[in-house]
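Support request from a user on the community tier.

User writes: "When I paste my structure tokens into the form, the page sometimes reloads and wipes my input. The last time it worked, I copied everything first. Here is what I submitted, just in case something in the input itself triggers the reload:"
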């Protein structure tokens, strides 16, 4: 499938056959539904009785309670063309069981298998899976330019940056057999948008790609900080690309959770207090993180946007102290209290930060290759931005830094005249702002469960009252999801990425962990007490004194129970079951 986007899937009781829709290729992938063996055969060996359906690629395989399943892409949407390579978004999938029956399972096993299937379907329903059959989406233009002829000959699966291959675990069986690699598509999770634009009558392609790391992946409150390997939570590499008259320019930024050991477990409070691990060897993971970042991207400028007071203050102080302790000359730390500086809608004050980093941005530059394929300049360093979630504040700053880089690129390649500003190009400015706001929403939905906050500024360049209302609504939805549905979301991601493996032989699993009695009893007591309070008001007794007594009794009971629930908040949230997350008390 190296040069096609359409395949044929043939299903018989014994095998799955995956056939590329290319008359020049006779090879067919055969998967034995009993032994799970993967082999190559030819088209004439596909039985005429096989049930045939068009698919657009193999996502991979996974083992659940009922046995193995094959996951295939059944619908796709064209995003655009990338240097004559078509980029697709996968929009629908099928999960096909190897087993022809589930009669061998007990009722409990059937229920568990159904739960695991719902987890896989939940991840597949998340918006943001992208692929190409001919182009390596996992690498930046600069990384691809600095490769050997041997690298260019590798399959897309072999050469992919494993940080961004979200179906890497699902493809593990195909990965072990190089001869079938062309049937395995590395799939990116994140955001891609492409636009054909015009300024001064000059047409160019403008592209924005955000690549979400599959290492330490998960949801907002259950995945913070770093792991022992130095992988940061919510790590996203964002690349902005311009293509004009054969010249290509690229500017790359990263975002990621503050890279030390800390947590912020949900407990029904609107903003749980962050906890810093005082026991772990903080510097070891911290150094691992930045060692890998410097190898990959060069010099690092950290832009820390968290509050410098309240519960976020200790995190900012810890980050600053660790950078100083590390003493690495390739790392520069800049703290900018976003909320304080931009309070009372003074968003023009973001220019303070842009001016502060302007010289560093000029020093780092951007990647540029001319129409002859000659590298003109390389990007020598990177801005690593973060706030608490690395979503809303972070995206605003990244969009402003990217615009400044784009200004220089468009002038250099001859699209903008000397003295012209991007902000003056109304049509392109609208495309630019909306694309960055869409990027913010995509990153936020994948991590926090809702669209981003502050996107009114990204879209319009100013903060609005309606934007504040929408932010309030999204904050309420985040609160609900973070407390009452994120455990399931985290389990789904862990299962999909292989952080938890289902054992077909050992049928005990964490799904059967019993909740504490308080989880069931106290909410029921609270609802009953509150209901009785309302009933007493509606059905007044013989005297107001009697009614008031009943209302006070049930009112105190409901409020008291509510306070007990809040005090024991961590017992009532929907916590992950499959993989034990770090607890820092």
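"...and here is what came back when it finally went through:"
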């Amino acid at each position: 499938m190296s040069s096609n986007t359409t395949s044929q899937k043939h299903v018989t009781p014994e095998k799955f056959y995956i056939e590329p829709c290319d008359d020049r290729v006779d090879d067919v992938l055969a998967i034995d539904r009993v032994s799970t063996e993967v082999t190559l055969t030819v088209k004439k060996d596909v039985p005429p009785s096989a049930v045939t359906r068009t698919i657009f690629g193999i996502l991979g395989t996974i083992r659940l309670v009922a046995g193995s399943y094959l996951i295939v892409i059944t619908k796709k949407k064209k995003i655009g063309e990338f240097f004559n390579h078509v980029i697709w978004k996968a929009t629908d999938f099928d999960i096909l069981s190897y087993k022809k029956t589930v009669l061998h399972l007990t009722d409990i096993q059937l229920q568990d298998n159904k739960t695991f299937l719902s987890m896989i379907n939940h991840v597949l329903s998340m918006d943001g899976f992208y692929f190409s059959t001919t182009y390596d989406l996992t690498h930046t233009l600069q990384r691809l330019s600095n490769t050997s002829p041997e690298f260019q000959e590798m399959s897309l699966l072999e050469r992919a940056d494993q940080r961004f291959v979200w179906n890497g675990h699902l493809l593990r069986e195909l990965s072990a057999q190089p001869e079938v690699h062309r049937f395995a598509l590395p799939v990116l999770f994140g955001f891609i948008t492409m636009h054909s634009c015009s300024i001064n009558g000059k047409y160019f392609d403008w592209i924005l790609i955000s690549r979400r790391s599959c290492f330490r992946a998960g949801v907002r409150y259950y995945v913070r900080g770093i792991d022992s390997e130095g992988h940061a939570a919510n790590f996203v590499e964002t690349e902005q690309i311009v293509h004009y008259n054969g010249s290509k320019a690229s500017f790359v930024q990263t975002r990621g959770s503050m890279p030390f050991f800390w947590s912020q477990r949900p407990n029904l409070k609107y903003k749980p207090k962050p906890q810093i691990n005082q026991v772990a060897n903080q510097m070891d993971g911290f150094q691992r993180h930045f060692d890998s970042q410097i190898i990959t991207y060069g010099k690092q400028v950290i832009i820390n946007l968290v509050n410098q007071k309240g519960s976020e203050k200790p995190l900012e102080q810890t980050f600053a102290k660790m950078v100083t302790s590390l003493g690495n000359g390739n790392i520069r730390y800049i703290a900018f209290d976003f909320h304080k500086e931009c309070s009372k809608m003074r968003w023009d004050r973001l220019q303070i930060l842009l001016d502060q980093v302007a010289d560093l941005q000029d020093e780092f530059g951007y990647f540029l290759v001319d129409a002859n394929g000659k590298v003109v300049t390389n990007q020598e360093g990177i801005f690593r931005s973060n706030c608490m979630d690395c979503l809303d504040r972070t995206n605003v700053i990244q969009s402003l830094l990217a615009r400044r880089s784009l200004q220089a690129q468009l002038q250099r390649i001859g699209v903008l005249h000397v003295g012209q500003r991007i902000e003056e190009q109304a049509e392109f400015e609208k495309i630019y702002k909306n694309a960055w706001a869409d990027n913010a929403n995509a990153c936020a939905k994948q991590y926090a469960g809702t669209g981003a906050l502050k996107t009114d500024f990204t879209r319009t360049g100013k903060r609005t009252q309606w934007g504040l209302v929408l932010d309030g609504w999204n904050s309420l939805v985040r609160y609900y999801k973070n407390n009452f549905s994120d455990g399931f979301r985290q389990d789904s991601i862990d299962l999909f990425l292989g952080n938890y493996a289902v054992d077909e032989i050992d049928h005990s699993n964490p799904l059967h962990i019993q909740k504490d009695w308080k989880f069931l009893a106290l909410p029921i007591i609270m609802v009953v007490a509150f209901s009785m309070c309302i009933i007493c008001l509606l059905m007044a007794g013989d005297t107001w004194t009697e009614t008031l007594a009943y209302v006070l009794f049930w009112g105190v009971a409901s409020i008291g129970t509510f306070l007990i629930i809040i005090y024991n908040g961590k017992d009532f949230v929907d916590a992950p079951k499959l993989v034990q997350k770090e607890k820092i008390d």
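Agent notes: The reload is a front-end session timeout and is unrelated to the input. Residues 517-583 form one domain. The chain has two domains: 141-497, 517-583. Escalated to web team.
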